[in-house]
Specification:
2 helices; 59 residues
Amino acid sequence: MNEIQAEENPLSQDFDIKSLLKFALPTIVMMLLMKKYSGIVYIWNGERMCLKQHWDIGI
């Protein structure tokens, strides 16, 4: 790749850890929040199903 093509290609720049974290941090935060939300929903639904099946209280 010659110098002109390298200047036009945004992927040919040198990345440092700060720029990579700036790019990836929103995705990482969203994955962690979704994991937490999914766990809370799973626990809540599990408790409701447990109550409904074992004590038949009609939730």
